[in-house]
Amino acid sequence: MALIGNPLIVFLDEPTSGVDPVARRNLWTVLTSIQKSGQSVVLTSHRYVSYKGKSKIICTFAITHL
Questions:
Q1: What is the pTM of this model?
Q2: What span, in angstroms and rounded, lies between the C-alpha atoms of 35 and 41?
Q3: How far apart are alpha carbons 51 and 59 in whole angstroms?
């Protein structure tokens, strides 16, 4: 839905969360193709990490073509 209007910048919050492996690969293929066409993609990814009994959340932001 976010890509229908062909926006210059696409913001996605954990776009592959809860997606099966085939759909995940298809989504990354689509995101790669729109990035190559000149659109910018901003996405977040969160990972929960436990180290020495303490949990931490690691957030990653990826920006392309701004």
A1: 0.63
A2: 7
A3: 16
